[in-house]
Amino acid sequence: MTQEPPPTGSQPPITSSLDISPPRPRDRTPPPINPSSLPQHQQRVYTCLRTQGWSPQQCDYYFAKIPSRQRHVHLVLRHVEGWNEEQLSRFDQRCAEEYLPEGLPPPDPEDDNIPVSNFWLTHRLLEDGNLRRKRVAKRMVEEMDEVERAGMQERQMEERRRREMQEREVR
Protein backbone atom coordinates (compact mmCIF):
# COMPACT_ATOMS: atom_id res chain seq x y z
CA MET A 1 0.00 0.00 0.00
CA THR A 2 1.40 3.36 -0.98
CA GLN A 3 1.18 6.36 1.27
CA GLU A 4 -0.55 9.46 -0.05
CA PRO A 5 1.35 12.74 0.05
CA PRO A 6 0.29 15.02 2.91
CA PRO A 7 -2.48 17.49 2.14
CA THR A 8 -1.35 20.98 1.21
CA GLY A 9 -3.81 22.81 3.51
CA SER A 10 -2.99 24.74 6.64
CA GLN A 11 -3.60 21.79 8.98
CA PRO A 12 -1.00 19.08 9.47
CA PRO A 13 -2.13 15.54 8.66
CA ILE A 14 -3.64 13.55 11.52
CA THR A 15 -1.42 10.68 12.53
CA SER A 16 -2.17 8.03 15.06
CA SER A 17 0.38 7.21 17.69
CA LEU A 18 0.59 4.05 19.69
CA ASP A 19 2.84 5.71 22.26
CA ILE A 20 0.46 6.69 25.05
CA SER A 21 3.07 7.02 27.79
CA PRO A 22 2.92 10.25 29.82
CA PRO A 23 5.50 12.91 29.06
CA ARG A 24 8.73 12.57 31.01
CA PRO A 25 9.49 15.30 33.54
CA ARG A 26 12.19 17.73 32.54
CA ASP A 27 15.54 17.18 34.16
CA ARG A 28 15.98 20.01 36.64
CA THR A 29 19.31 18.84 37.91
CA PRO A 30 21.73 21.75 37.91
CA PRO A 31 25.02 21.32 36.08
CA PRO A 32 27.87 20.12 38.27
CA ILE A 33 30.16 22.81 39.58
CA ASN A 34 33.90 22.73 39.95
CA PRO A 35 34.59 23.98 43.50
CA SER A 36 38.02 25.31 42.53
CA SER A 37 36.40 27.59 39.93
CA LEU A 38 34.20 29.29 42.54
CA PRO A 39 35.09 32.69 44.04
CA GLN A 40 36.81 32.41 47.41
CA HIS A 41 33.72 33.25 49.47
CA GLN A 42 31.70 30.57 47.63
CA GLN A 43 34.52 28.05 48.13
CA ARG A 44 34.13 28.67 51.88
CA VAL A 45 30.40 27.97 51.60
CA TYR A 46 31.04 24.81 49.54
CA THR A 47 33.55 23.54 52.11
CA CYS A 48 31.13 24.33 54.93
CA LEU A 49 28.34 22.35 53.26
CA ARG A 50 30.59 19.37 52.46
CA THR A 51 31.86 19.18 56.05
CA GLN A 52 28.23 19.04 57.19
CA GLY A 53 27.56 15.98 55.02
CA TRP A 54 26.21 17.52 51.82
CA SER A 55 26.90 15.54 48.64
CA PRO A 56 28.44 17.26 45.60
CA GLN A 57 25.05 17.04 43.82
CA GLN A 58 23.28 18.70 46.76
CA CYS A 59 25.93 21.45 46.74
CA ASP A 60 25.30 21.95 43.01
CA TYR A 61 21.63 22.48 43.79
CA TYR A 62 22.47 24.86 46.64
CA PHE A 63 24.61 27.05 44.36
CA ALA A 64 22.03 26.94 41.56
CA LYS A 65 19.48 28.49 43.93
CA ILE A 66 21.67 31.41 45.08
CA PRO A 67 20.43 33.87 42.39
CA SER A 68 16.75 33.32 43.26
CA ARG A 69 17.46 33.76 46.97
CA GLN A 70 19.34 36.99 46.30
CA ARG A 71 16.58 38.35 44.04
CA HIS A 72 13.97 37.70 46.73
CA VAL A 73 15.91 39.49 49.47
CA HIS A 74 16.80 42.36 47.10
CA LEU A 75 13.12 42.87 46.25
CA VAL A 76 12.19 43.05 49.93
CA LEU A 77 15.03 45.39 50.82
CA ARG A 78 14.52 47.64 47.79
CA HIS A 79 10.73 47.93 47.71
CA VAL A 80 9.75 47.43 51.35
CA GLU A 81 12.74 48.71 53.27
CA GLY A 82 13.75 51.49 50.84
CA TRP A 83 17.35 50.41 50.15
CA ASN A 84 19.16 51.94 47.17
CA GLU A 85 21.49 50.16 44.73
CA GLU A 86 24.67 51.24 46.53
CA GLN A 87 23.34 49.85 49.81
CA LEU A 88 22.35 46.59 48.10
CA SER A 89 25.83 46.31 46.65
CA ARG A 90 27.39 46.75 50.11
CA PHE A 91 24.88 44.22 51.45
CA ASP A 92 25.94 41.63 48.84
CA GLN A 93 29.60 42.22 49.69
CA ARG A 94 28.97 41.84 53.40
CA CYS A 95 26.93 38.67 52.90
CA ALA A 96 29.78 37.23 50.82
CA GLU A 97 32.21 37.99 53.66
CA GLU A 98 30.07 36.87 56.61
CA TYR A 99 27.54 34.35 55.38
CA LEU A 100 28.18 30.66 55.96
CA PRO A 101 25.35 28.10 56.08
CA GLU A 102 26.56 26.63 59.37
CA GLY A 103 24.13 24.28 61.04
CA LEU A 104 22.27 23.54 57.81
CA PRO A 105 22.06 19.75 57.72
CA PRO A 106 22.03 17.95 54.38
CA PRO A 107 18.63 17.30 52.84
CA ASP A 108 16.87 14.04 53.54
CA PRO A 109 17.14 11.67 50.55
CA GLU A 110 13.41 10.99 50.97
CA ASP A 111 12.74 14.59 49.92
CA ASP A 112 13.44 13.58 46.34
CA ASN A 113 10.63 10.99 46.39
CA ILE A 114 7.83 13.54 46.49
CA PRO A 115 6.10 14.63 43.25
CA VAL A 116 7.73 18.07 43.09
CA SER A 117 11.41 17.26 43.05
CA ASN A 118 13.59 19.14 45.53
CA PHE A 119 10.58 21.06 46.88
CA TRP A 120 11.61 20.77 50.54
CA LEU A 121 15.26 21.43 49.77
CA THR A 122 14.31 24.58 47.88
CA HIS A 123 12.07 25.66 50.75
CA ARG A 124 14.78 25.06 53.35
CA LEU A 125 17.43 26.87 51.32
CA LEU A 126 15.20 29.90 50.74
CA GLU A 127 14.17 30.04 54.38
CA ASP A 128 17.69 29.60 55.76
CA GLY A 129 19.35 31.92 53.26
CA ASN A 130 16.73 34.62 53.63
CA LEU A 131 16.81 34.53 57.44
CA ARG A 132 20.60 34.75 57.53
CA ARG A 133 20.69 37.54 54.96
CA LYS A 134 17.97 39.47 56.80
CA ARG A 135 20.11 39.29 59.95
CA VAL A 136 23.00 40.82 58.02
CA ALA A 137 20.65 43.53 56.72
CA LYS A 138 19.41 44.26 60.24
CA ARG A 139 22.97 44.70 61.49
CA MET A 140 23.72 46.99 58.55
CA VAL A 141 20.68 49.18 59.31
CA GLU A 142 21.79 49.45 62.94
CA GLU A 143 25.22 50.62 61.74
CA MET A 144 23.86 53.23 59.28
CA ASP A 145 24.02 56.90 60.11
CA GLU A 146 20.95 59.13 60.39
CA VAL A 147 21.27 60.57 56.86
CA GLU A 148 21.26 57.11 55.30
CA ARG A 149 18.27 56.01 57.40
CA ALA A 150 16.38 59.18 56.48
CA GLY A 151 16.97 58.44 52.79
CA MET A 152 15.64 54.91 53.26
CA GLN A 153 12.52 56.22 55.01
CA GLU A 154 11.92 58.68 52.17
CA ARG A 155 12.21 55.89 49.59
CA GLN A 156 9.79 53.77 51.67
CA MET A 157 7.25 56.60 51.64
CA GLU A 158 7.68 57.07 47.87
CA GLU A 159 7.15 53.35 47.31
CA ARG A 160 3.98 53.39 49.45
CA ARG A 161 2.62 56.37 47.53
CA ARG A 162 3.40 54.66 44.22
CA ARG A 163 1.58 51.48 45.33
CA GLU A 164 -1.41 53.49 46.54
CA MET A 165 -1.61 55.27 43.18
CA GLN A 166 -1.49 51.94 41.36
CA GLU A 167 -4.27 50.56 43.56
CA ARG A 168 -6.43 53.59 42.83
CA GLU A 169 -5.86 53.18 39.09
CA VAL A 170 -6.93 49.52 39.27
CA ARG A 171 -10.20 50.43 41.00
Sequence-ordered SSE layout with sheet pairings:
Blueprint: H1 40-51, H2 56-64, H3 66-80, H4 85-98, H5 119-143, H6 146-170
Question: Which key terms come to mind for this protein?
Answer:
mainly alpha, single chain, 171 residues, C2H2 finger domain protein
Folded structure, characterized:
Residues 1-42, 147-171 are annotated as: Disordered. Residues 1-10 have a biased composition (Pro residues). The protein has 171 residues and is mainly alpha-helical. It has one domain (35-170). The chain has six helices and no strands. α3 crosses α5 (119-143) and α4 (85-98) packs across α5. Residues 15-19 have low confidence and may be disordered.
Helical amount among residues, as a percent range?
Answer: 55-70%
Class inferred from helices and paired strands? mainly alpha
What is the CA–CA distance across the termini?
Answer: 66 Å
- Low-confidence parts lasting 5 or more residues at pLDDT below 50? 15-19
Q: How many strand segments?
A: 0
Specify Rg, calculated over alpha carbons.
24 Å
Shape designation: elongated
Major sheet details: none
- Regarding quaternary structure, what we see is single chain
- Which sequence of SSEs, written as H and E, runs from N to C? HHHHHH
Number of helices: 6
The average pLDDT score comes to 76
